[in-house]
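subagent[fold] <- orchestrator: predict structure for attached chain, return tokens only, no commentary.
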Amino acid sequence: MHTYASIAQLLVALAVGFVWVFRFDNIVKEFHQYGLSDLTRTMVGNAKIILATLLVAGIWYPALVLVPALLMGLLMVAAQYFHFRANNPWSKRLPSLFLLVLCVFIAAVSLNLIA
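subagent[fold] -> orchestrator:
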């Protein structure tokens, strides 16, 4: 199961990196739509990139995995809240929901809840 968790860690990290680097213009539009400041966007982006990096490092150092997975999951819960509040369609909600599910899976494997 740890192999699947490692794959999930890579998927989360790659998805976050892709969105915050190559689709940054979309992020700017979304944060503006949600009424959030540039400072908030910068802090969230930095946090996500740091957490994604820790998830990748956690492949070799498993002790690093639990906290970043839980914090990334909380950021995805926040993303779901803002998508809901803005009444976005499901097509915009699904990516963060999928990443939330992956983060819960990674945390569960890290806690040995899933063998």
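orchestrator: received. Logging for downstream: The mean pLDDT is 96. The chain has five helices and no strands.
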